[in-house]
Design goal:
By secondary structure, this protein is mainly alpha-helical. It is built from 5 helices and no strands.
């Protein structure tokens, strides 16, 4: 099955529902990034004793880890929205078959079907052992 014919099999209603979920998820992540940046500005890590400063540094580290995770998820959402615009949404990158509708509704930014994810996992595990 070709990539374009697989995209035609994805229900337009499912695509519209996923687009809505993606836009809401994008707004949520942007709000979280903004709030965490504001909290970071409020955090004064040069005040207090060594324990206070250590706690502040740990909070800063956790904030940076969370921001990196948010940025990664935001990029996945942006890629999914771009795939919708290019009519490539809902097709597994590994198998070139349509992604299961329930999977798309649960994880609208996914690039892989269940079968495709299993193939990638086996491939990853195979090369991890070498």
């Amino acid at each position: 099955m070709s990539f374009s014919s697989a995209t035609e099999l994805v229900n337009r209603k499912i695509i519209d529902e996923c687009r809505k979920k993606l836009v809401l998820a994008k707004q949520d992540i942007l709000n979280r990034l903004k709030m965490s940046a504001e909290r970071f500005k409020e955090n004064n890590k040069n005040v207090g004793d060594e324990i206070d400063q250590s706690v502040a540094q740990l909070e800063e580290y956790n904030l940076l880890i969370n921001q990196e995770r948010f940025r990664f998820q935001l990029s996945e959402i942006e890629f999914a929205l771009a795939r919708i615009e290019k009519n490539h949404f809902g097709v597994c990158e590994e198998t070139l078959e349509p992604i299961e509708e329930q999977r798309l509704l649960s994880i609208p930014w996914t690039r892989l079907s269940i079968e495709g994810a299993e193939i990638r996992e086996r491939y990853k595990n195979h090369f991890a052992q070498i």
